[in-house]
Design goal:
- 31% of the residues lie in helices and 18% in strands.
- By secondary structure, the chain is of the alpha+beta class.
- It folds into 3 domains: 83 residues, no CATH class; 109 residues, 2-Layer Sandwich (Double Stranded RNA Binding Domain), CATH 3.30.160.20; 64 residues, no CATH class.
- The strands form 3 sheets. Strands 4-3-2-1-5 form a 5-stranded mixed sheet, with helices on one face.
- A hairpin with a 5-residue loop joins strand 3 and strand 4.
- Helix 1 crosses helix 3 and helix 4 crosses helix 5.
Length: 316
């Protein structure tokens, strides 16, 4: 390396920014464009290393070769212009505490939390296979197998079962779906490296808190809604009340009509309804109001309207 090249490289090194890793011999030198950093190990003026291509090429021919990044570290150390940096922890998938439920001093994880961590680990596929269909022969037991795969090619699988004995009464009609959820939850637990039991795997809270009631145990306060039944009162159709008229036989209609057709009578004075009204040619009883009502009732039963009766009487 000529003196002019060394001078030019030294001038460029003055403008490079240097970061120092605390309690470590490693330095990071920012490139001229400010896009990347080169890793430099500087122990002494005779022991140094840089991972740039210029150093690898020059050091191969000359062991005293110093690239601009090494020169930047040397000048920064002597001038005290280095900046300390710290290691940052790599981001790791983490289970959110909101997905952890404590029951009787025991922690359980929700299926939603297992699924969330699985997506953080780049979940790419979930396959569920129904191994056993619930029937009377197997005591209505459904068994499913779940297989999950991650982006890096890792595969995890497990099975889950459900029947009316290990499920809550509210989900006994969904045994296949419950078996599928349990199988996926167990596979996700292996994938996420979570040892907590999933809450969906429990058939009943008595498995956790025992048969005795506990002060902190959740209470199932869901009550079945009973639809109120409207009481209907049967409507009984009122039957027509027969009108009983004294001294008014059924044949009175025919006799009255016959008398009015054959006899010409003079206008009689209206009586009191007891037969006191008389004419000179004979004793004719006039109809009382009760008799008139009875006559109209008889006519309606025979399909004769009251208007038709009045017109017939006026005509005669």
């Amino acid at each position: 390396m000529t003196s002019s090249e060394a001078l030019k490289r030294s001038e460029k090194a003055q403008n490079l920014k240097v970061f120092h890793l605390t309690d470590s011999p490693w330095y990071y030198v920012e490139s001229e464009e400010g896009k990347i950093c080169y890793k430099v190990s500087f122990v002494s003026e005779t022991e140094y290393f840089c991972n740039c291509a210029d150093f690898a090429k020059g050091f191969k021919n000359d062991e005293s070769f110093k690239c601009k990044h090494v020169l930047a570290v040397m000048s920064s150390v002597t001038e005290g212009n280095s900046e300390n940096i710290h290691y940052l922890e790599r981001w790791k998938p983490k289970l959110d505490e909101s997905f952890i439920k404590k029951i009787d001093d025991k922690d359980f994880v929700l299926y939603a939390g297992l699924l969330d961590v699985a997506h953080q680990k780049n979940l790419i596929s979930v396959d569920v296979e129904l191994i056993q269909f619930p029937s009377d022969e197997n005591k209505q037991t459904a068994i499913c197998k779940a297989t999950v795969k991650t982006f890096d090619g890792k595969t995890f699988s497990d099975i889950g079962d459900s029947n009316p004995q290990n499920c809550n009464s509210k989900v006994t009609r969904h045994l296949i779906r419950m078996a599928s959820t349990r199988a996926k939850a167990r596979a996700f637990r292996d994938m996420d490296n979570i040892g907590l039991t999933a809450l969906e795997e429990l058939g009943d809270l008595n498995e956790v808190i025992g048969n005795k009631p506990h002060a902190h145990a959740p209470v199932d306060n869901v009550k079945a809604f009973v639809k109120p039944v409207k009481k209907t009162v049967p409507v009984i159709a009122a039957e027509p009340v027969p009108v009983i008229v004294k001294d008014a036989p059924v044949a009175a209609e025919a006799s009255i009509c016959a008398d009015t057709k054959t006899k010409k009578t003079k206008a009689a004075k209206p009586g009191n309804g007891n037969g006191n009204g008389e004419t000179k040619q004979g004793k004719i009883h006039l109809m009382s109001e009760a008799q008139k009502s009875a006559l109209y009732n008889l006519s309606r039963r025979r399909g004769i309207s009251s208007i038709d009766i009045e017109s017939r009487l006026k005509k005669d």
